[in-house]
Amino acid sequence: MSRVCQITGKAVMGGNSVSHSNIKTKRKFYPNLQTKKFYIPEEDKYITIKVSAQGIRTINKKGISACLKEARKKGFLMK
User: Fold this and answer.
1) What are the Cα distances from residue 31, in Å, to 61, 75, 77?
2) Is residue 6 part of a domain?
3) 50 located within any domain
4) Which structural domain range is residue 55 located in?
5) Is residue 56, in this structure, part of any structural domain at all?
6) Residue 25 burial by CB count (10 A; 0-12/13-18/19+): exposed, middle or buried?
7) pLDDT of 22-52, one tens digit each?
8) In terms of Cα–Cα distance, which of 64, 69, 7, 67 is closest to 39?
9) Mean pLDDT, residues 1-5 taken together
10) Which pTM was predicted?
11) 79 in a domain, yes or no?
């Protein structure tokens, strides 16, 4: 599975490493992804999703049910 947050859609970004002599080489910036289990009380089950640290904060603020509904609508979550 690719390195994409299933809640926020954050993915790998490209950029440059810049040395002291200003030589630029390509590099990747990876999102801070965690594999977490969340309990959904409406469905009375646990789900495991790959979520970024920002996604965890969003879930804590809005609630898991609202975030899942929004992620499915945007197409980030396949279920």
Assistant:
1) 20, 19, 17
2) no
3) yes
4) 13-74
5) yes
6) exposed
7) 999 999 999 999 999 999 999 999 999 999 9
8) 64
9) 85
10) 0.83
11) no
